[in-house]
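Hi R.,

Here's the chain you asked about this morning:
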Amino acid sequence: MDYANKGSFTTTLSIFDKCTRTFVHPRSFTDITSRPRNSDSDMDNSHESAPLSKTKEDKPKIHDEEKSEKHRRTIGRFRIMVFALGIFILLLLIIVIVVAVMKKVETIPPCSSGQSVDISEPDNPSIFHDLTSKEVKGMMEFLYKQKDLNLTRPDKIEVKTSYIFTAELHLPEKADAVSFLASGTGQRPPRQARVIIFRGDLLIPKIMEIVVTPLPNPTHYTIWKDDIPFGYRPVTGPDYGGALGSITLETDKKARQLLLESFGGALTNCGDTCLTYKYITPVSSAISGRNRRQYWFWMSQFVEFYILHPVDFAVLVDMDDPSYPIEKVWYNEHTFDTLDSLVKQYNEDKVLKKPLLFPNLSETLFSTLHRRGTEFPKTSQRPPISIEPDGRRYSVKGQHVKYMNWEFDFRMSTTRGPQLYDIRFQNNRIVYELALQEISVFYSGYKPTQMFSNYFDSSAMIGPQDKGLVPGVDCPSHATFAHASHVLESSEKLITFKNAFCLFEINTGTPLRTHHSFSPFHGSFYEGMPNSVLILRAVLTVVNYSYLVDFIFYQTGAIEVKTVSTGYILSTPFTANAPNFGVQVSDNINGNLHHHMFSYKVDLDIEGAMNRYRTLNISTVASANQFNPDPNAKIVQGQFLVSEKTTESEAAYKFNFDTPKYHLFYNNLKRNKFGVPRSYRLLSRGMSKQLLPEGLGNEPAMAWMRYQMAVTMRKEHERISSSIYSGLDAKDPVVNFDHFLKDDDKIVDEDLVAWVSLGVQHIPHSEDLPVTHTPGMDLSFFLLPYNYFTEDPAMGSRDSVRIEPNIYNNPKSGVKVSGFDNEDLQCKPPVNNYQQAVEADPSILFETQEGQGTSI
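And the predicted structure, written out as C-alpha cells:
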C-alpha cells in the first residue's frame, strides 16, 4: 500500500461504507420519499380528521408541509447522488487496482536464460563434431576431381553411375584421440570423413567405403572397405524411383479394374481414392535362396495413416534387373506368377473376391490422430509444465555439453543415429563412446509381406529420420534444440534437419533420495533431494514407428540409456489363416507379432582404458544351523562369488534367472581405501532373447542379439556391430558380430567394449490403435558407480533439503529448514512460440523440398 495516500484511501472507504449502509438498509429512504401525504402518520393530531376545506389558520400549516416535502425530496436526491458517487468511486478504485496489477504483470521480466548456449557451426570443430558445411564443401570439391572415382553429380545419378551415397565423420584412432584430449596441446588428429560410394559404373559393380583426409582441405583418400557386393546396397533414390514408377504403371495398366472393384481405388488418376506402393520388404539371398536383390512392395489405401489401411495385394520385384520385373503377385491370400495370370483368373471368377471399400476421409477415421471421443478434462485446463526458475544449469558450445559435474560431446551419425563421446564426471572419463548401433524389427505373419519383414533400420539411414521435435510435447518448452546435418545422395551440400536433438534438465518427480526419521527414538530429522537430471533426446521416426532415445545424466554419477517405442503398428489385412501370428485389432487389420531389438556400443574407460570385467555371481549356500536343536537343521541364504572374465567367449553373456549377477568394469590398479576396485556397474533392464535359431535366415546379420551383453577387446576395425547392408547380406554379413567373439581375445587389462542388446516382444492389441502408446514399451540400461566414490557424490548438491530440530532430537525446540527456496518466482517462464515459428517456417517440422531438409 502507498502510505502517502492512506488518508484519501481511508476517506474513500468511509464514503463507500456510508453509501453501502444506505443501500443495504433502504427502509429509511423509502419512508421519507414514498410515504403518502395525508396519512395518519403525517398528522400532528392523529385523532382528528382533516377538514374538507382550508381556513386561514390552515395556510401556514400547508406551507410548512410543502416546505417539508421539498426538503424530503432534496435529501432523497442528495442520497441518490451520494450513492451513485460511491459506486463510481468503487468502480474507479477497482479499475486502478486492475490496471496496476496488469502493469505489474507486464513488467515481470522473463526468467534468466542461465548458462550460455551456442549451437552454431564452429570454425574449428572438435574431434567429435559432425562434419561442417565448410568441410563438406572441401570434401566434395576434392572427390569430384578424382578421375578414378568417376563420380556423377546428384542431379544425374542412376543405378549404373558412380555416386556418393553418404558421408559422415570418421573418428580418429582412439589412442590418438585420447592422447590429444589428455594433453590438450598435443598433436591434434586430422578431421576425416568416411564416404560410401556406389560404383555402378564398373564392369563388376561394387560398393566402396573410403576415408578422406584431412578436412576441410583434403589431399588424399584411403580405402576403408573395397569388397562389398553391389547387391547389398540399400534401396536408394534411383532404385526406388525406378521400381516404383515401373510397377505402378504396369499394375495400373493391367489390373486397374481389379483394383477399383477390390479396393475402391487406383494407382494413377485416382483423385481422393488413391492406392500406393509405399512400403517395401527386402528379401535377402539367405531367405530366397537366390543371389538376387528382391523386394516385396506392399499396396495400401493412401489415407492417414496408410500403414493401417493395407490391402491384400503385393508384388515381388527383382531390383537387380533395370526393367524391375514383377516376379510374383500376392492377391487375397494367393500367389500368382504374373499380373496377367491374376487378371485372367479374376475375370474368369476363378479367384476369391473380397471387395474392400475405400475409407471415408474424415477426422473420425480410426487411423487418424485427430482428437475424438469424449473430451476431458471437462474444462480447458492446461497440463503441468516444467520451468527453469533461474535459467538453464547446463551450457552448450557446438556439440559439447557441460552440466554440474558432467561434460560430453554428442553428434548424429547418418547411418546409426545418436552418439556420445568422452563422457566425464568430475573431469574423469567414464565412457569414451556411447552409441546406438542398430534398430531391428523382425515380424511374423502368414502373408509374405510380414513373413519376410526383417528390418534393419540403418539400411534406411537412422540419422535423417530424426527431425522436427516439437517443444511442449516431444520435449519441454524450455529445452535447447539442436539440428543435425547429413551428406546424402540427393545433394552436394550438407543437408540440415532442424530440431533433431533436444537437451533439457527436468525434475523426474521421484526423489533421488529421501529419509524421514520421525521418531526421537531414531533421532528426529528429514533429508531428501529431488531428482533433477539432464536428458539428451532424439526421436527416430522410421516410417511407421517412432523411437525415443534418451541419454540421462544423474547427479550421483550414474548414466541411463533409455529407448521407448511408439507409433503405428505394421499391419496386414486380417485373415483367419494366421491366428498365431497376430491379433485382429480392427475390421480389416491384423496386428502381427514382432520383436523390437536395439544394439548399443559402450566403450567404458574406468580410471583409464586398461580395464577388466568381472561378475558377482549370486547363488545360495546351505550351512549347519547351530542355533536349532535339530542337528540336521540347515540355514540357506544368498551369497555371491567373484568371477573374473579372461576371454571374450567367457564374457558373452546370456541372461539366466537362475544365475543372477552384477556386471562390473574396473581398473585393477585403482582401488579404494578398503582395497576394493573402483568400478562401474552395467545394469540392463531391457533384456530380451532372440528366439530364432542361430545361423538361420537373416539371424546372422544380427548376431549381436544372441547375447544380452558381450564384452570384447576394442579394435579399430570392430567399430560397429551392424551395417547399412544388413537387410540383404545375411548370407555373408559385411559386419559379422560373431567374428568379434570367435577370435576369443584376452580381455584382462585391455581396452574393453560392452555391446548391449535390448529388446521387447510386441503382440499388438486394439489399444494400439491408432498408435502404440509409450507406457510399458521402455527399455533401458544403466552405468552405475560401484565403489567408485567414497560416498554418494550427490551429497554436495545444493538441491537437497534438510529439516531438523533446533536442539538435537528435541522437536519441541522448533525446527530449522535448509535447502528450500522460499522466494517468490520473480520472473515468468519463456513463452512457447513454436506455433508461430512453424507457421512461419514449416521446414522446422516437415520436408519442404522433395525428400530432404534444408541445404546449407
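The first strand starts at residue 117 and ends at 118.

Let me know if you need anything else.
M.
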